[in-house]
Design brief:
The protein contains nine helices and 15 strands. The protein is an alpha+beta fold and about 375 residues long. It binds 2-oxoglutaric acid and fe (ii) ion. It comes from Rhodamnia argentea.
Length: about 375
């Protein structure tokens, strides 16, 4: 494994990333590339070094305007950013990491090995396009928590995940308001847009990406954009693997201890009328490390009606921007997404437009 320490990131945090050899073959778009030129690697490092890191502590002092601009730039040009000083206690994150890794060893690892063996995944010779090399379980927090019903979780693990979810929910709502401010929308607009009749949907996907013998043939998680609103990710600080597509190139989201990675989903693209875009990302498993990730999805409520914010449409029209986004019920979008997650988002938007003009069609059946 090749380990590259990048210089201090812009917020005086050292960003370290691990580049394996075979397991970290980079790709342009979805085209597999056996070897990378020096120029490609330098370009990739250059992009990675400019990955936006936002120090939330700076939102309270004389660096507020600069920090807000940085968030704006990240939303407009990356669809991703990384938060430090976000207010979630580092000790809580350490406890969660320890318990998540312990839970994987105790309750998930054997199951994953059996799954791999039953499908012969260790010996694949051609690219696998219908499976991901990940071991996961899901928790629901809102509108109702299901944590008490998840089997195999220790009580203290349940308790800390519940507390973590409350903090993440607050952080997500704080971020939505920062986005409103940058977009020129009234405070609370996005929260309200997500609310529906029963409040937002909020859940967590806990994942492990175990060492993978063929990372070039089977992805940890295939490329996709997220369907929902705003996503908050607590990722392993040692084993990298999450990549986003930036300017046609896959680049690592740098692991950084105690940070929270944020990315924007399809719903924010619709509501902002394309001012902010959901961005393709994927996970590349490593040959020699198990990566933990805890992704929390703050999404609209099932019956929330999603459409571009009128203020942004008017402004966009003035600027003669092209393209319009559909109006739909979030639940209908999710039914479509379940079948089309690993495909481009544009046909999903088109399909919702067709439903909008012909409501009797209903969403595509996914069962
Ligand atoms: O595990 C990660 O880092 C990302 C997971 C992800 O993108 C997803 O579940 O949608
Ligand atoms: Fe994702």
């Amino acid at each position: 494994m090749r380990r590259i320490m990048l210089g201090p990131a812009s917020e005086n945090q050292s960003v370290c990333c691990f580049l394996g050899t075979k397991s970290r073959e980079r790709e342009r778009g979805e085209q597999p590339q056996e070897k990378q030129s020096f120029t490609t690697i330098s370009r990739e490092r250059e992009i990675m070094e400019s990955f936006p890191v936002i120090n939330m502590g700076n939102l309270n002092g004389d660096k507020r305007a600069i920090t807000m601009d940085k968030i704006k730039d990240a939303c407009e040009n990356w669809g991703f950013f990384e938060l430090v000083n976000h207010g979630i206690p580092p000790e809580m994150m350490d406890t969660i990491e320890r318990m998540t890794k312990g839970h994987y060893k105790k309750c998930m690892e054997q199951r994953f090995r059996e799954l791999v063996a039953s499908k012969g995944l260790e010996y694949v010779q051609t690219e696998v396009r219908d499976l991901d090399w990940e071991s996961t379980f899901h928790l629901k927090h809102l509108p109702a928590s299901n944590i008490s019903q998840i089997p195999d979780l220790d009580d203290d693990y349940r308790k800390v995940m519940k507390e973590f979810a409350v903090k993440l929910e607050k952080l997500a709502e704080e971020l939505l308001d920062l986005l409103c401010e940058n977009l020129g929308l009234e405070k609370g607009y996005l929260k309200k847009a997500f609310y529906g009749s029963d409040g937002p949907t909020f859940g967590t996907k806990v994942s492990n990406y175990p060492p993978c013998p063929k990372p070039d043939l089977i992805k940890g998680l295939r490329a996709h954009t997220d369907a929902g609103g705003i996503i908050l990710l607590f990722q392993d600080d040692k084993v990298s693997g999450l990549q986003l597509l930036k300017d046609g190139q896959w680049v690592d989201v740098p692991p950084m201890r105690h940070s929270i990675v944020v990315n924007l989903g399809d719903q924010l693209e619709v509501i902002t009328n394309g001012k902010y875009k959901s961005v393709l990302h994927r996970v590349v498993a490593q040959t020699d490390g198990n990566r933990m990730s805890i992704a929390s999805f703050y999404n609209p409520g099932a019956d929330a009606v999603i459409y571009p914010a009128p203020a942004l449409v008017e402004r966009a029209a003035e600027e003669a921007s092209e393209g319009t986004y559909p109006k739909f019920v979030f639940e209908d979008y999710m039914k479509l997404y379940a079948a089309l997650k690993f495909q481009a988002k544009e046909p999903r938007f088109e399909a919702m437009k067709t439903m909008e003009s012909n409501p009797n069609l209903g969403p595509i059946a996914t069962a």
